[in-house]
Amino acid sequence: MAAAIATTTMFEVFLNCFLGFLHVVPMWRWLNHLSIPHPEKKGAKPGKRAATKSKIKRPIMFRPELLELFEVSAPTIWLWQIKLGFPKSIVVGGRSAWYADEVDAWIAARPRRRLKGDPPLDAA
After folding, report:
1. Is 66 within the bounds of a domain?
2. pTM: predicted TM-score of the whole model, two decimal places
């Protein structure tokens, strides 16, 4: 009896106790996601769950956010992609977007402006 309870749902246990039925047929289509073998099939493999893919989240920036960050126009970003090696955009839902880490790396790789009084590059 204990084995029968372990392979049934809580709803079936409730029906079995409340209504006084001796046997309730397990509804296996509800239990496909559980790791319980079918009692009538010896050596049966448990139901398989859908494979979950590892979703690595990389923050993205859409065009309006990028234009606000640099305070330039869309054609300027396009020219930067061609001439200055700015990261290429990706398409997300039909919209242009950029990976934020690639944009940050591009900004970090930009040369620093020299100020008056800075030592010459040869001396550093």
Report:
1. yes
2. 0.50
Tokens for 93, please give them: 């839902």
Sheet holding 90-92, edge to edge: 60-62, 95-99, 90-92
Residues 66 and 40 in one domain: no
pLDDT in tens, 78-101: 999 999 999 999 999 999 999 999
Structural domain boundaries enclosing 27: 1-51
Give yes or no: residues 46 and 77 share one domain: no
Domain shared by 46 and 89, yes or no = no
Distance between CA atoms of residues 13 and 91, nearest Å: 51
Distance CA 4, CA 53 (A): 34
| CA distances in angstroms from 36 to 7, 47, 48, listed in the order given | 7, 7, 10
Measure the CA–CA gap between 60 and 15, rounded to whole angstroms. 51
